[in-house]
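Record passed on here:
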Amino acid sequence: MNGKWGSVHTTALYENTIAASALYSELVAAEVCEALGLATEPRTAAPGRRPVMEIAGVPHELIRWTARRSDQIAACLDELEHEYVTAVDDDGEPLFLPVVSERARAKMNQIAARKTRPPKQKNQPLAQLRAWWKASAILTSKVAADVITSLLEHARAAAAAIRARVAAVVDVALAAVDVTATVFVMNEVGGAPVTGGASAIGGQAVCFAGAWGASQAASNLVSG
C-alpha cells in the first residue's frame, strides 16, 4: 500500500469477516449490474432477517426454481440453529445466547452446505446445460415462456424503472452510514436490523455505497 510492502492484518480481517463478505457480494452485484444494465432490489428471505439483494425483474418463482439446493441448506440450517439455541452444559445452563449472531449463522451455513452437498456429477457441455435449464424452467417454474426467453430484456426494463425512481434521492454518505450500521448491528447483536435509507430507496444505495466501503475496508485490513 502506498508503494510499500505490507501484510494482511489478520485480526482485523477475522473481526470483519461478515462485513467483508457483504461488501464483496455488493461489489460483484454492482459490477454485474453496470456491465449488463441491470439493477438490484431487496427481498426479505425470512422474517426477522435482513433482506437479500436480487436482480430486479427476475420473477420470484424463477428464483425459487433455482433454489432447490438452497432449500436443502436452509432446512439443515434450521436444525443447526435449533441445536445452537437449545444447547446446554452439564448443569443445564445455556451454552450460547438465545439469538444466533450473523457470525455464528455464517459458520453454520458452511456446515449445512457441507452436510447436504450432493456427489459430483459428470461434466456436460455448457450449451447442453443451458438448453436443459431453459426447458426445465419453462416446464416447472410456472413462469411464462416469453418472460424466460426474454429475461434479460425484462430485467433491463425493471432496472430502468428503478433508476428513474431513485436517481434523484440517493445520498451516498447516508447510504454508507446505513450499510455500516446494519452490518455492525447484525454482526454484534444478531437481531433484526432497523433498515433505513438503503432499503427505502429500493436497495440501490447498497451498490453505490459498496465501492466507498470497500476502499475503507481495504485500508483497515492492511498494515504497513
Observations:
- Confidence is low (pLDDT under 50) at residues 189-224.
- The radius of gyration is 20 Å.
- The CA atoms of residues 106 and 123 lie 30 Å apart.
